[in-house]
Amino acid sequence: MGRVKTLLVKRTARKLLERHPEKFTDNFESNKKAVSLAIDINKKIRNSVAGYITRLVKQSNKKNK
Q1: pTM for this one?
Q2: Is 46 a member of any domain?
Q3: Would you say residue 18 lies in a domain?
Q4: Burial grade of 7 (CB within 10 A; 0-12, 13-18, 19 or more)
Q5: pLDDT tens digit sequence for 27-39
Q6: How far apart are CA 34 and CA 39, in angstroms?
Q7: Is residue 11 part of a domain?
């Protein structure tokens, strides 16, 4: 079982991915930098958002193949 993400993390990740899909990849480190440039939040939430975005991108890549 995975860890449950809060509504704040999910909502923020979806908004960022919708607004800037070209900035995010399936690499956590690059997503972490992109999230920190896009919004100003603390380190813990930034990492959660970046991780969730990474997961969403990987799922969409897998679905498209």
Answers
A1: 0.90
A2: yes
A3: no
A4: exposed
A5: 999 999 999 999 9
A6: 9
A7: no
Domain span at residue 63? 26-65
Given a contact cutoff of 8 angstroms between Cβ atoms, the answer to whether 17 and 24 are in contact is yes
* Residue 1 predicted with pLDDT over 70: no
**Alpha-carbon separation of residue 54 from 5, 17, 58 (angstroms):** 13, 10, 6
Q: Report residue 55's pLDDT band, with 50, 70 and 90 as the boundaries.
A: very high
Question: Hunting for tokens 């899909």 — which residue is that?
Answer: 21
What is the distance between the alpha carbons of residues 44 and 20, in angstroms, rounded to a whole number?
A: 21
**For position 21, what pLDDT does the model report?**
93
Q: Are 17 and 52 in contact (CB under 8 A)?
A: no
Q: Which two tokens stand for residue 57?
A: 């991108």
Does some domain include residue 65? yes
